[in-house]
Amino acid sequence: MKIEQQRLPRLAVLIDADNTSPQIAGGLFEEVAKFGEASVRRIYGDFSGPQLRSWADILSKHAIDPYQQFAYTKGKNASDIALVIDAMDLLHSGRFEGFCLVSSDSDFTRLASRLREQGADVYGFGKQDTPESFRQACRRFIYTENLVSETPAANSGAAPKSRSLQPPSAAIPILEKAISQIESEDGWVRLDTVGSVLVNLVSDFDVRTFGFRKLSDLVRNGGGFDFEKIEGGHLRIRAKPAGGDSPKVKAK
User: Fold this and answer.
1) Ramachandran bin of 93, using left for φ above 0, alpha for ψ from -120 to 50, beta for the remaining angles
2) 124 CB contacts (<8 Å, ≥6 apart)?
3) Which residue among 37, 76, 80, 123 is buried most deeply as judged by most CB within 10 Å?
4) In the CATH scheme, what is the homologous superfamily, with its name and number, of domain 168-239?
């Protein structure tokens, strides 16, 4: 009996070239691959000018289709309009489970909301200063700064490092809020359960923002939590009580 391999969700990746650096292209598609298959890859902008010339070599490398939009009128962004029109056409084709909107422009807030109203998943990609309205309109929002690794010195043999956008302590209230939404008699909760709650609670939560690759590393090094391993190799955590340290708990 032949077992058919389940196909990944089909995603349409739509890039606003005017608000996106070509330096994130490699990391962008690695990140998109975590959510599904980038079946459509389109970028919108006026490629006749010098501003977007740096995208030229990137397009063919990542199989991105450029959609030329001439700036006929100063101050009017034809690229945004073209991206929105194409997104709605692709939505109504019924062929896609999700959309990746790559821009830091709050003008795409309504588009993200509309796509989600129709049942599509929306993954946003933009800079850390992207307006909150757009970030919260997406199911997940990934900061593009987290997609660019620091390049180690030549011949150092070291792996690329993530840049910390915020101190680990900034994650404590977010994690505490997630823990508070999980039922527990003694305050202890499994870390994987916390991770599941975070996905739905905070669209732009990303451990890389705090300089780590895994949630467990953030908890161990961020302070504010007791942690220990339990049966099955799972990690559980609890918030330290205010005004004093908890008894030391060992990671078994």
Assistant:
1) alpha
2) 100, 101, 102, 103, 108, 112, 130, 134, 135, 137, 138, 140, 141, 142, 203
3) 123
4) LOTUS domain-like (3.30.420.610)
Q: Show the beta-strand stretches assigned E in 34-178.
A: 37-45, 65-68, 98-102, 121-126, 140-143
Q: Is 10-147 assigned to CATH 3.40.50.1010?
A: yes
Q: What is the pLDDT of residues 210-248, one digit of tens each?
A: 999 999 999 988 888 998 988 888 899 998 876 555 544
The model carries a pTM of 0.83
**Amino acid code (one letter) for 239:** A
Is pLDDT larger for residue 159 or for residue 149?
149
Q: 162 and 213 in contact (C-beta within 8 Å)?
A: yes
How far apart (Å, rounded) are the C-alpha atoms in residues 18 and 43?
Answer: 10
CA distance 31 to 41: 14
192 token code pair? 């994987």
Within 10 A of 92 (CB to CB), how many other CB atoms are there? 9
